[in-house]
Amino acid sequence: MKQRLILLLTLMMAAGAALAQTEPVDSSYANGYYVERMKFFDQLHPAPKPVVFLGNSITEAGPWSEILPGINVVNRGISGDNSWGVYNRLNQVIALKPVKIFLLIGVNDLKRGVPIEYIVANYDRIAATLRTALPKSTLYLQSVLPVAEPMLANIYAKISNEKIRRLNDGLKQVAQKYNCPFIDLYHEVFVDEKGQMPAPYTTDGLHCKPAGYLAWAAYLKKKKYL
User: Fold this and answer.
1) Residue 9 is inside which H or E element, if any?
2) Is residue 171 a contact partner of residue 127, using CB atoms and an 8 Å limit?
3) Whole-number pLDDT of residue 22
4) Residue 182: which residues within 8 A CB-CB, separation 6 or more?
5) Where are the extended beta strands (E) located within the chain?
6) Are 174 and 140 in contact (CB under 8 A)?
7) How far apart (Å, rounded) are the C-alpha atoms in residues 77 and 213?
């Protein structure tokens, strides 16, 4: 009996030590810009039944109304946002009662070194919430875009196209689980023959130039997502 107790205590100590050595995951999101952007959204009153583009700086910088004329587009991008931040602000999106939601999030999670399974789990929570709250709306899960690795600044050192591809594989599974269209922007629009985002499409290896947004919008229209 004593030997069993000693063994149990030893296993518990080993498990505790392993847990203590695990690097904590940075799930923070509510910085000053995020809070101000949320306040800004609260003061807007878009037309009914919009098409919502939801995401981070890549979404926020998109000139969606100009490149998608005639479509009631609402931009809900927040620079620096991550998958926790999007999940936290779903009530604002739900209140709009959109007909379509185009979601793109995750690269800032990778920037922080967040494990891919955490990001996929957050996508699962996001998809489950939106499908329950907005059963008549269509949620489109857009793949995370490739990066031009040689162009990336040191602050993006934890981001790689190999990680992005693995993340996108997880997002495909979430899309299948919730019967959501998966839009493979990575392979269909933004990756070149070298496996990188083409220089004409990006400002810094990660963010898009106007040419990138034009190609993005053209693909959405070509596939009749819009």
Assistant:
1) helix 2-21
2) no
3) 54
4) 140, 141, 143, 171, 172, 175, 176
5) 51-55, 73-77, 100-104, 138-142, 182-183
6) no
7) 14
Q: Which domains does the chain have, with CATH numbers?
A: 29-222 (3.40.50.1110)
* Span 123-132, average pLDDT: 98
How many CB atoms sit inside 10 A of residue 65's CB?
A: 13
Confidence of residue 104 (pLDDT cuts 50, 70, 90): very high
Q: Pick from 215, 202, 211, 225: which is nearest to 150 by CA?
A: 202
The region of weakest confidence among 15-29, 55-69, 103-117, 129-143 is 15-29
Per-residue pLDDT at 125 exceeds 60: yes
Output the six-digit token pair for 87: 């999940």
Residues of the chain above pLDDT 70, percent: 90
CA nearest neighbour of 101 among 78, 135, 124: 135
Query: Which candidate, 85, 183, 180, places its Cα nearest to that of 134?
Result: 180
CA angle 191, 192, 193 (to 5 degrees): 130
Find where tokens 């709250």 sit: 133
Which residues, at least 6 apart from 60, have a Cβ–Cβ distance to it below 8 Å? 75, 77, 78, 79
23 confidence band (pLDDT: 50, 70, 90) = low
Is the pTM of the predicted complex or chain greater than 0.70?
A: yes
Write down the pLDDT at residue 68. Answer: 98
Longest dimension (CA), the chain: 76
* 3-state per-residue secondary structure call for 194-211: CCCCCHHHECCCCCECHH
Q: Which two tokens stand for residue 185?
A: 């922007």
